[in-house]
Amino acid sequence: MAEAPLHVAIIMDGNGRWATRRLLPRVAGHKQGVDTLKRCVSACMERGIGVLTVFAFSSENWERPADEVSGLLDLLAGALSREVAELQANGVRLHFIGNRAALSAKVCQGFAQAEASTAHNARLVLNICFNYGGRWDIVQAAAKLAARGVPITEEALGAELSLAHVSPPDLLIRTGGEQRVSNFLLWQLAYSELYFCDTLWPDFDAAALDLALGSFSGRERRFGKTSAQISAQGSGDAPTQASRLAA
Ligand code: IPE
Ligand code: IPE
Ligand code: MG
User: What's the 132 CA to ligand 2 centre distance in angstroms?
Assistant: First the structure.
């Protein structure tokens, strides 16, 4: 059965419902969600997960009411100024993934500073997807190849995608009860194990993470092969990031 996942991706959904159930404004749920993410980062590090990729704001989330969008942008700005030092001290390497064209110069500068100040860290790679869409990612990668006149192959396109610095997610978790991908990592999820839970993101704690990891550990990853082939080869796991880098 599958070994512990190297790369976990999470669609952090359910903040709005968490707040609404408490008669709070939706943005209060997003605020709580930031705290949940901080605890989740620690829990991932304690469990030896090497890469955590989280969906914080989708290409489509601009369609929300203006006060919610500005609340989310404010939370991002606050987190950039308050949280980076602690993440840096804890050995987290930050990457911000997504289309920066629509973001303010100040936010882009915050992204660049956070990435530069944590660039030498190796304990956990934390990819924060903000103004990210899987379709955007594939199109921007294809456009780069087209501009250089490079033929489009899986390898060439994969190298231009915004998560080219890590292996694909082994496990995708979506909280909040919906069972859809919502334009998250469309290319990279090709062989990820999918796990959906009803827990709303602000309530997602270490025990909920362990349930997801427990489900993952019982999966047989076949990558198109037969179960007999996987048993004969001894492990159904995808190559780890380390073995990929060594190859
Ligand atoms: C996820 O929570 C956070 C973002 C999309 C920014 P939601 O805000 O989608 O919460 P629900 O799904 O409305 O409960
Ligand atoms: C996906 O959640 C995006 C994030 C968690 C950032 P949504 O709440 O936007 O997804 P839909 O609209 O329910 O599919
Ligand atoms: Mg939602």
Answer: 11
CA dist 210 and 207 (Å) reads 5
Band (240; pLDDT cuts 50, 70, 90): low
Q: What is the best residue among 61, 69, 131, 200 to mutate for testing ligand 2's pocket, by most ligand atoms within 8 Å of CB?
A: 61
Sequence-separated (6 or more) residues with CB below 8 Å from residue 103: 111, 130, 131
Percent of the chain's residues with pLDDT above 70: 95
Q: What is the mean pLDDT of the chain?
A: 95
- Is the CB of 13 within 6 Å of ligand 2? yes
User: Nearest ligand, CA of residue 201?
Assistant: 1
Across the strands, what pairs with 52? 8, 126
Cβ(134) to ligand 1 under 6 A?
no
Q: What is the total residue count of the chain?
A: 247
**pLDDT tens readout for residues 128-168:** 999 999 999 999 999 999 999 999 999 999 999 999 999 99
What is the secondary structure of 85-129 as a DSSP string? HHHHHTTEEEEEES-GGGS-HHHHHHHHHHHHHTTT--SEEEEEE
Contacts of residue 134, Cβ cutoff 8 Å, sequence gap at least 6: 181, 183, 184, 185, 186, 187
pTM assigned to the model: 0.95
Q: Is 126 exposed, middle or buried (0-12, 13-18, 19+ CB in 10 A)?
A: buried
Residue 38 confidence (pLDDT): 98
pLDDT, position 243: 47
Q: Which domains does the chain have, with CATH numbers?
A: 7-245 (3.40.1180.10)
